[in-house]
Every structure is written in structure tokens, then in C-alpha cells.
Q: What sequence folds into this?
């Protein structure tokens, strides 16, 4: 079907930087803290412990 997205797996995402299609996020921290922060996409802003937990989860995949 045309127009469907096929995003890559998150397995091993920690070792695949830089991130985003143009490589402007050199780390998961920068990606989650600024460029793709949850509030930019209609969610609530993550607390620092929540963001750190999310980073730890992604690093564990």
C-alpha cells in the first residue's frame, strides 16, 4: 500500500547513531531532550527521571 511507513526496528538503536534522517541528533539524550521531546508531539513533557528511564530502556534493546 502506498504511503505506509516502514520504520526501522528499535533493537540496537543505541548503537546506531547519529539519529534522525539527517543525523542531527548525535545522541539519544539530545534526541529525547530537544529534537523529539514528547511535548513536541502532543504528549506531556517527560520528567528527568522518566527521560532517563526511557533512555535506559532504549539502550537495553
A:
Amino acid at each position: 500500500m502506498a504511503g505506509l511507513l516502514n520504520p526501522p526496528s528499535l533493537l540496537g538503536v543505541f548503537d546506531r547513531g547519529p539519529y534522525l534522517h539527517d543525523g542531527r541528533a548525535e545522541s539519544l539524550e539530545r534526541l529525547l531532550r530537544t529534537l523529539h521531546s514528547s511535548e513536541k508531539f502532543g504528549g506531556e513533557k517527560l520528567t528527568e527521571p522518566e527521560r532517563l528511564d526511557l533512555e535506559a530502556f532504549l539502550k537495553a534493546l
Summary: Helices lie at 28-35, 48-60. Residues 18 and 26 are 4 Å apart (CA to CA). Residues 13-60 form one domain.
